[in-house]
Amino acid sequence: MKQVTFGSTSLKVSSIVLGCMRMNSANDPVKVLQTAVDNGITFFDHADIYGQGECEEIFAKSLANTSIKREDLFIQSKCGIVPGKMYDFSKEHIIESVNGSLKRLQTEYLDSLLLHRPDALTDPEEVAAAFDELKTQGKVHHFGVSNHSPLQIKLLQSVVKQPLEANQLQFGLMHSGMIDEGFNVNRKKESLSQQNEGMLDFSRLENMTIQAWSPYQVSLIKEVFINNERFPEINQKLVELAETYHTTPTGLVSAWILRHPANMQVIAGTMSPRRIEEIAQASDIQLSRKDWYQLYLAAGNHLP
Ligand SMILES: NC(=O)c1ccc[n+]([C@@H]2O[C@H](COP(=O)([O-])OP(=O)(O)OC[C@H]3O[C@@H](n4cnc5c(N)ncnc54)[C@H](OP(=O)(O)O)[C@@H]3O)[C@@H](O)[C@H]2O)c1
How far apart (Å, rounded) are the C-alpha atoms in residues 47 and 32? Predict the structure, then answer.
């Protein structure tokens, strides 16, 4: 398993993360967890809202049914979304959410806590106060964000004492806006630059780990592009190159993300032990520059 450095820390973590958003749909969550760990995946991503808390509970129950030790895992959760109602980064909500996650996960601490989606009413002082309290109490070791722009991060970081170590973003062959932007500097592509604001370079300069969510999906989280006849060109290329690299199209999609030198993690949400193995094994593949570009183009992108 390829390891990456987590943010500005010296911690080495698995480049593949198991996303636990769909854990309440797993046929055998104990096997899912065990397969992940057996294949070197020791980083797990949660959120207070996944399955309305059920996913964190299932994870804890599954862990208790294995001999895997809590301290050998890196457990991350997220807070700040109040489903269907609003986003809430108030001190009270952040602390309450973490306490709920700790209880459901049956753990004393989170290795990492991310703010899930930007709250328009964010008061960085409140976030800072919440993080200070959680850090002092030993309830959260590291902090970060998700779906945040460079400026939103700068605003938070101007007050928050702890370094923001990670930004979880939708990224992959079918969500390559951060890459497209870099190719189109000085061209009339205003919508692109507004969307990404130099996110990729910012993350590298600030030593923030980009965690790529829903890497196999076309849309938000509901349509997979692999083996999908709506996307013949990319699938043809994936099948062709999978043979060259002795992997599967799924493995190759992860390897494409990890080939980027920005020290990213891939968050895979599959609950299939077979796919977990495929994805984990592909983490060590080093795509050639030519093949990386060929996949980018086959995904429907163009170079200027
Ligand atoms: N920060 C955010 O805003 C945000 C948003 C969404 C997700 N996330 C995180 O990202 C994680 C991954 O999200 P996701 O589950 O939407 O992403 P994903 O890994 O792209 O998709 C996994 C889903 O695709 C299915 N699938 C079908 N064919 C597949 C194939 N060939 N390869 C891989 N998967 C295939 C899987 O089914 P099987 O289980 O049957 O394999 C599973 O239902 C979540 O668990 C969560 O931790 C974060």
Answer: 18
